[in-house]
Amino acid sequence: MDDVLALLEGMPIVTFKSGEALLGEGARDSKLYVLIEGEVEVIRRDTQVSHVDEPGSIFGEMAVLLDQPHSATVQALSTVKAYEVKDAIKFLEAHPELSLVLATLLARRLYYTTSYLVDLQQQAQGQRQDLDLVDKILSTLTERPRAKKRA
């Protein structure tokens, strides 16, 4: 992650106090944050889904890339210093090496999520009908996106 930090040298640095949100679930903006130092938690629907303290960690990428509201809150657990990338799409277009880092990160997340869902599906096979949702999620994750029709 040191290469990510080196790439962002000279970008604005923001500081958050413990308890402050870097990103809010449901909020919309075009910012990315890259952790320089400190600890954050990622909270979705009032449940902590991750604890992050690795410098170079990136937050806000899903909302930026999908052009949708943030799916989780990222909240400081200590004093946090982070690079702030205000117009993330423009920055990613100008720095394809960061886009490759993001693609790798997202591919890794998808791999582990899919593996988890397959494990869940195998454990629950034939046990509970309400877990058919796992089948639906897994098939959605493995489908190719449909091409948009042009008018």
Summarize the structure.
The chain is an alpha+beta fold. It has helices spanning 2-7, 61-66, 88-94, 96-124, 132-142, and strands at 13-16, 21-23, 32-37, 40-44, 47-52, 58-59, 73-76, 80-85.
If you had to describe this structure to a student in words, what would you say it looks like?
By secondary structure, the chain is of the alpha+beta class. The protein has helices spanning 2-7, 61-66, 88-94, 96-124, 132-142, and strands spanning 13-16, 21-23, 32-37, 40-44, 47-52, 58-59, 73-76, 80-85. It has two domains: 2-94, Jelly Rolls (Sandwich); 104-142. It contains five helices and eight strands. The strands form two sheets. The protein has a four-stranded antiparallel sheet. It has a four-stranded antiparallel sheet with strand order 2-7-4-5, with no helix packed on it. The radius of gyration is 18 Å and the shape is globular. The model has no long low-confidence stretch (mean pLDDT 86).
